[in-house]
User: What shape does this take?
Amino acid sequence: MPTAFDSVTIGKTRLANRIAMAPMTRSRAYGGLPSELTVEYYAQRASAGLIITEGIQPSVVGQGYPFTPGLHSAEQVAAWRKVTDAVHAQGGKIFAQIMHTGRIGHPVLLPDGLVPVGPSAVAAEGQGFTPEGPKDFVVPRELTEADIEQTIADHVTASRNAIEAGFDGVELHGANGYLIQQFLAPDSNRRTDAWGGSVEGRIRFAVELTTAVADAIGADRLGLRLSPGSTLNDIHEPDPRPTYDALVRQLAPLGLAYLHVLEAGDRDVTLALRGLFPGTFILNPNTGERPTGPEDLVLIENGTTDMLAFGQLFLANPDLPARLAAGGPFNTADPATFYGGDATGYTDYPTLSA
Assistant: This one.
């Protein structure tokens, strides 16, 4: 029976333990560049079996939040190299999460008159964060066939840039109502061409994108994050099983490093995907109002998942694996520290001995 503290392999990468640091938006990159504070933040958490970074936009139009980093310029690659070098110096492993937010965003975040894009010209309900305060989401520009091909190419370039920057691999963000999930969901994808309509049409973007990136950097260095049934960012998937079963069946032969599921609904969906995916499985479990905690380690022991992803607990406890092994103590994350360059407590939480 495996435990959270046993090693595990994703692709060809051997991890020291089965505790993953979940991707968490930080909004502390200026000019699209991770800072020295970012270097310290990730290096402090290098004892995770795997660090998955905050979402990194693959192109200018892929940005949906203020002060998020990119991987589409030489300057950004050089800045991320400082992060990966620092993590590796501490013995850690780190994957870059590539996140195109699609229709989630606002024109004030984008230069040159650009507007957010999506599979269909359907605005999300709600508001987005901007430097000018909350603003209603706008109707996105519907991607043409040529746009879709360019978007896939942008992800390929960003993924190659990630490897050049020293990342051990890449995770594609197909969850939380961003571009990949916008193609998967029937309410945000109302296309009648080969990129929409049927289940096969709606999964096509995810399949072709994942395949293209796998061909470019190696499937053994690529993971995919999904959140079947999630309602984040005005996504509605009342019956996710047919779509996600079909998607995972098509991706299974690629030999991806892992599948990462953010559990939004029933455990039955999670277990179905676990059964369909032949590689390493990472679970960010549905825990209701509380963050993932030590009580969830049993999900590794009983075989529900191979690895467990922790979010808030990693913010408050940079040395989380040691604390989990010792049974605590655990600091509680302060919401005031979650986002923004002026937030306090970014890296100065007490050590295990405190």
Q: What stands out?
A: The radius of gyration is 19 Å. DSSP finds ten helices and 14 strands in the chain.
